[in-house]
Specification:
Elements: H1 2-14, E1 16-17, E2 36-40, E3 45-50, E4 56-62, E5 74-76, E6 82-87, E7 94-98, E8 105-108, E9 110-115, E10 121-126, E11 129-132, E12 138-150, E13 154-167, E14 174-180, E15 184-185, E16 197-201, E17 210-217, E18 224-234, E19 237-242, E20 250-254, E21 259-262, E22 280-285, E23 288-294, H2 295-299, E24 308-315, E25 321-328, H3 345-356, E26 360-365, E27 368-377, E28 379-386, E29 389-394, E30 397-402, E31 408-414, E32 421-423
């Protein structure tokens, strides 16, 4: 443990504040505790809107050019600070751009390559993942710290996982948890194809008292998921409990991790659901697994090369409902049978009609997943405004939707995709 804490201190030291001359935007105005809607526009600028009255509070906050391509790397704290995380080109170092006037750029991690006495190189690398705390005052850092022996191909790797929190300027460190990886032989010549790493999932609204850690091997052709642990906090101390199965992809979670929605495939980006047909989405309620969506059972499309999947899901604030988006292959794409010459014209026409109504927003009750409360064609989920209303994207405009009555209230806020909408 002493060695791990030493590594933690080294990792923290690498999270250095960089003095940059970027223009700083200081936010102000929204009522204390009011939820906000953030939208990234096509010109790569962020705007903030009131989630109750829908009027703008802040507009024209320019983000780094890469943010538009990777909105999943945008982090917005509940206190209104916007961050964008990437890596410094040609390195493993994590770079964080921020609107925080006291720390508008942070750099963390490790990237070092030194000659080894036994020949080749000793490569030290670490690229921390960063999340905000739920109250918006601290950052959580999660880092795989690796030391790799390389002599042309990778030969072996030692490593450890370290997590800590800091304030928003990367000061005031507090350890969270740490562990060592077993020594790993890189049999294929690339350690990422043979050795385990970690991936963290935490709520987009920030970490309060839980997060998930999954150990996995990226692999050469396909990934292997080893196990997933739920970390919870009580009295300032964090403890882990291993789940009964490894989770490939979390869509959302609540209730200290006792309620979560998962899917084996991640379609939050530009991936096509047709790449992995037969998609299934499940909900885990206190250890009980309930199927929310089963592509083949619902659409009977197993004989055709198409794909329909849950690309986004969100649990309501009262944990009574789950809203999700179904998206699929382009309706303009020709539907081909899995066995050439075995297609049926009527079936192809039926499936084409299904695809023309996607994306589709649906809402189900946690207590009765088989009954759909709401189903809206050509609509994407952006998130929950409150326990009875979702924010939905329909024909390029955000709408307030009553999940019980289906009543729609226009917000007047434009957005290109739900990927560019953030509720905080």
């Amino acid at each position: 443990m002493r060695r791990l804490f030493d590594i933690f201190l080294v990792a923290l030291a690498c999270a250095a504040l960089v003095n940059a001359q970027a223009r700083i935007v200081v936010f102000g105005g929204p009522p204390q505790g009011r939820r906000m809607i953030w939208v990234l526009s096509p010109d790569n600028k962020m705007s903030e809107y009131d989630a109750v009255l829908f009027h703008p509070w802040v507009s024209g906050v320019g983000l780094p050019p890469e943010a538009r391509k990777h909105p999943e790397n945008i982090l917005i704290t509940s206190s209104g600070i916007v961050m964008y995380a990437d890596t410094l080109p040609g390195t493993a170092l994590r770079h964080i751009w921020s609107t925080n006037p006291y720390a508008n750029e942070l750099v963390g991690g490790a990237d070092d390559r030194r000659p080894s006495a036994a020949g080749g190189f000793q490569i030290t690398s670490a690229t921390p993942a960063v999340y905000a705390s739920a109250e918006g005052k601290r950052l959580f850092w999660f880092e795989d710290h690796f030391s790799t022996v390389n002599r042309g191909p990778d030969l072996s790797r030692e490593g450890s996982f370290i997590s800590w929190t800091t304030d928003l300027t990367a000061n005031d460190p507090q350890p969270v948890t740490s562990f060592r990886f077993e020594s790993c032989k890189c049999e294929t010549g690339s350690c990422s194809e043979s050795c385990p790493e970690t991936v963290i999932w935490a709520p987009a609204t920030g970490i309060s008292d839980f997060f998930f850690l999954t150990r996995w091997v990226p692999g050469q052709i396909g990934s292997t998921y080893i196990d997933t642990s739920l970390y919870t906090s009580a009295g300032g101390a964090w403890s882990a409990r291993k789940l009964d199965h490894a989770v490939d992809n979390f869509l959302d979670a609540a209730d200290r991790g006792n309620l979560y929605v998962e899917s084996p495939n991640d379609y939050s980006g530009d991936d096509d659901p047709a790449d992995a047909p037969g998609n299934v989405t499940t909900m885990n309620v206190g250890g009980k697994v309930v199927t929310i969506f089963d592509e083949h059972a619902r659409f009977h499309d197993g004989g055709y090369i198409i794909g329909i999947a849950t690309t986004r899901a969100a649990i309501s604030p009262d944990r009574a409902r789950v809203a999700y988006t179904l998206a699929g292959s382009s309706p303009e794409q020709e539907i081909q049978p899995t066995v050439p010459g075995k297609g049926d014209a009527k079936e192809i026409q039926r499936l084409h009609a299904v695809l023309t109504e996607l994306p589709r927003l649906e809402v189900i009750a946690v207590s009765s997943a088989a009954n759909t409360i709401l189903s809206l064609p050509n609509t994407e989920l952006a998130g929950w405004l409150d326990a009875g209303h979702v924010l939905a994207l329909q024909h390029g405009e955000l709408q307030r939707v009553d999940v019980q009555t289906g009543a729609i209230t226009p917000t007047g806020i434009k957005a290109e995709s739900a990927r560019f909408v953030f509720l905080r």
